[in-house]
Design a protein that fits this description.
single chain, 369 residues, alpha/beta, TIM Barrel, nine-stranded parallel beta sheet, two-stranded antiparallel ribbon, 15 helices, 17 strands, 18% strand, globular, disordered N terminus, Aldo/ket_reductase_CS
């Protein structure tokens, strides 16, 4: 069986993976590739080749699946060592169309199977009369793909409790992962508890709040205490919360740093928070590392993103320090129910005919031979 293989160390180190309820090992630190900030071929190659990343998170909507296939090939890392995840856009929901979308993603990614396939949003096109039935029919298609071993893990993204209930009312397989925005400004404790009670792994994107958390004084202080960057602290917070982390960076240095700490970052402001900086200074880490570490120590799979190689490196360097209980509490107390993504804007994007990747800025992608 192609799934019964010996994985890279990122899978076997107890701290670097979580075991899902179907016994698949999910690396707790991943590399995000969303269109925000652009897509960097060199950063993805560097992350795989030099920083030990083995979890790549993308989506059809981002418009970079083809480029990721090129990067994987250029890295020289065997496909079977990479946990490759992508998402189905709501415009493709439906029994037949979801399978078509899955096959299209596989073709663009240069693979015949996916390690994880997620429903991108709980929203559906406005013209749909029975939205509940569409979601349930779509989920059944994912269950079939799982049964066919085309997908190793199936899950959802941006689902709240009532959305999950819609799926679980009729499902045979409970979603194995729920990927949502997660950082100190947005810490949905009730949703995380709900998922934990049902053995649904919580995964966090935008761990750095696109930079918002990295400047927080608490995170900076913890990073200083641990001798880490704030990014590593945030990633580590995710990991210690047992939440897989998916930081993103297009810089080699950040990819490496993130591999040593884990944490989604934000929009920039959070990185200036005095509390985050104080923690970062104590640990001799960056605010981003503090945020990633916070994710990890909260057992949240973390997928930070960056197009800067030095940031990609930094975001990976979050496994060699530990946030104290006091550090964790300070970061936990920063919750403001503040999100980077506005869920109310998604419906218009689903109904809009703009092509996938319409706003993607491509950085240093080589021409096809």
């Amino acid at each position: 069986m192609r799934f019964q293989i010996v994985m890279a160390d990122v899978y076997t180190n107890p701290e670097k993976h979580v075991v899902l309820h179907n016994n698949v090992k999910l690396p707790v630190l991943g590399l995000g590739t969303s269109h925000n900030g652009g897509y960097s071929h060199e950063a993805v190659v560097y992350a795989l080749k030099n920083c030990g990343y083995r979890h790549i998170d993308t989506a059809k909507r981002y418009g970079c699946e083809t480029y990721i296939a090129q990067a994987i090939k250029a890295s020289g890392v065997p496909r079977e060592e990479i946990f490759l995840a992508t998402k189905c856009w709501p415009a493709d929901y439906g029994a037949a169309t979801t399978r078509e979308a899955f096959n299209g993603s596989c073709q663009r990614l240069g693979t015949d199977y996916l390690d994880m396939y997620l429903l991108h949003w709980p929203d559906v096109p406005s013209g749909v009369k029975d939205k509940k039935k569409l979601l349930q029919d779509t989920w059944r298609t994912l269950e079939v793909l799982l049964d066919e071993e085309r997908a190793r893990v199936i899950g959802v993204s941006n689902f709240l409790e009532h959305h999950l209930e819609t799926i679980m009312d009729e499902c045979s397989v409970v979603p194995q992962v729920n990927q949502c925005e997660f950082h100190p400004y947005n810490n949905p404790k009730k949703l995380r508890a709900y998922c934990a009670e049902r053995n649904i792994q919580f995964e966090g994107y935008s761990p750095l709040a696109k930079g918002l958390a990295l400047k927080n004084t608490t995170v900076k202080s913890i990073a200083e205490d641990c001798g880490k960057t704030t990014s590593q602290i945030l990633i580590r917070w995710n990991l210690d919360k047992k939440i897989p982390a998916i930081p993103k960076s297009t810089r080699v240095e950040r990819v490496l740093e993130n591999s040593q700490g884990y944490c989604p970052l934000g929009n920039g402001q959070i990185l200036n928070e005095p509390q985050i900086q104080e923690i970062a200074d104590v640990h001799n880490k960056s605010p981003a590392q503090v945020l990633i570490r916070w994710n990890l120590q909260r057992r949240v799979v973390c997928i930070p993103k960056s197009t800067k190689e030095h940031r990609v490196k930094e975001n990976a360097e979050v496994f060699n320090f530990v946030l104290t209980d006091e550090n964790m509490a300070r970061l936990d107390n920063m919750a403001q129910n503040l999100t980077i993504m506005d869920p109310s804007s998604i419906q218009a994007k689903i109904d809009n005919p703009l092509p996938d990747g319409y706003k993607l800025n491509i950085i240093n992608v080589p021409a096809e031979p």
